Amino acid sequence: MNAKQKNKSGKMDFALAKTEIVGVAHNSGALVSGVAAAEAFEVAPAGRRPADLLPNASSVLVIGGAQPRAGDWQSPNYQHMEVTTTSDRIQGLALKLARIVEDHYGYYAVCVPPGVDQGQQAFMSISMAADLAGCGSTSLAGPVLHSEYGFMYYGAVITTMPLPADGPLETPACPAPECVEMYAAEGTTPCTNVCPIGSGGCLGGRVEAGRIVERQYDRARCTTRVQNYWVPGFQKVLGETLREKDAEKQKMKLYSSMFSRTLWSMTYSNVSQGQCAECMRVCPVGLAHRTKR
Questions:
Q1: Which candidate, 134, 158, 157, 129, places its Cα nearest to that of 146?
Q2: Do you find a cis peptide bond into 175, omega within 30 degrees of 0?
Q3: Of 146, 203, 191, 193, nearest in space to 169 by CA
Q4: Distances (CA, A) of 150 to 109, 121, 235
Q5: Where are the beta strands (DSSP E) in the chain?
Q6: How confident is the model over 102-159, as pLDDT tens digits?
Q7: What is the pLDDT of residues 193-249, one digit of tens each?
C-alpha cells in the first residue's frame, strides 16, 4: 500500500488510499463497495448517525456481498437459512478493513454492529449507508438492492479518514424494467403481488414514470414472519415457558422443535436471518446470479 506516502503537496493521497482499501475488500470477497460522507446522514435520527458511534467521523465505507447461494432460493425449506448464515462473512470483512484503516493509515475506524441498540433500533442504518454510498438502492420490498447482484448483505465502517465519497446511484435498482411493465399492466409488482399489504401481506406502493413514489410496509406484521426463530423466538418461548405452571408442559416447551431451532439459529448466526424472503425470491433484480441448472 502506497497511500501512506505523501503526495507532492505533503498530504496523504486519500483517493489512492480508498483504491487500496477497496482492492483489499474485493480481493477478500466483497462484490460491491462505496463510500458515503458522514455528513450525508443528517436525515438519520439523532443518535443514529456516524458521529454518534465515532466522534469526528468523516466517511462511511460500505461493502456488500456474501449473498445466499442460488440453491438457497430454490429450496422449499427456506428455514434452513437461519442456521446456514452467510451474512457474518461480510461483517468479518468489515472488521478486517477497520483494522487496516487504523493500523496502516492511522485513522480511527469503527465497524457498525449488525444488531440493535436501545428500543430495538439499529446503532446506525447500514441500509442507509449502502444507499448513500451507491452500493444499491432501497426497494419496494425494503432491502437495498444492487443493480446487477440484487439482494446481498452489507457491512459498514465509520472512519475519521476523509475518503472521497461516491454518493447515491443516479438510476435506482428498483423498480426493475420488468416491475415497471408489470405495474403498468396490473397495478402491482412481483414483491407486492406475493405479499400484498391489502390482503394480509406486508408490502404495497406505487410506481410512476419508472420510479417508486410511494411505499407501504407493515413492519410489525413482517417481523412475525421473518423472525420466528433467532432472538425474538427465544424471547417468546422463554417467556411462555417461565409462565407455565405445569412441569410436564414446561419441559415440552423447553425441548420443543421451536425452542431447539431458535437455539440453533442463535448459535450459528450472529445477526438476524429472515425466515421468509418470498419478496426477494420473486425479485427480478439480480435474477441472473440466482439462476443455475
A1: 134
A2: yes
A3: 146
A4: 28, 25, 32
A5: 32-37, 59-65, 109-111, 145-146, 150-151, 153-159, 203-208, 211-217
A6: 999 999 999 998 877 777 788 999 999 999 999 999 999 989 999 999 999 999 999 9
A7: 999 999 999 999 999 999 999 999 998 888 777 766 667 778 888 898 999 999 999
Please say whether the beta carbons of 2 and 20 come within 8 A: yes
Q: How far apart are CA 178 and CA 241, in angstroms?
A: 48
- Neighbour-count burial of 290, counting CB atoms closer than 10 A to its CB (0-12 exposed, 13-18 middle, 19+ buried): buried
DSSP 3-state assignment of 7? Answer: coil
CA distances from 156 to 8, 91, 92, 132, 185 (A): 31, 8, 11, 11, 39
How long a stretch of residues is the chain?
293
**Residues whose CB is less than 8 angstroms from the CB of residue 169 and which lie 6 or more positions away in sequence, other chains included:** 134, 136, 137, 147
* Rounded Cα–Cα distance for residues 279 and 293 (Å): 22
Residue 56 DSSP code:
T
- Is 34 in a helix, a strand, or coil? strand
Total-model pTM: 0.85
SS (H, E, C) 94-154: HHHHHHHHHHHHCCCEEECCCCECHHHCECCCHHHHHHHCCCCECCCCCCCEECCCEECEE
| Cell (9 digits) for 44 | 438519520
Which amino acid appears at position 222 of this protein? C
The four Cα atoms 21, 25, 26, 27 give a dihedral, to 10 degrees, of 90
Distance set, CA 116 to CA 124, 125, 180, 193 (Å): 9, 10, 34, 30
Classified as helix, coil or strand, 245 is coil
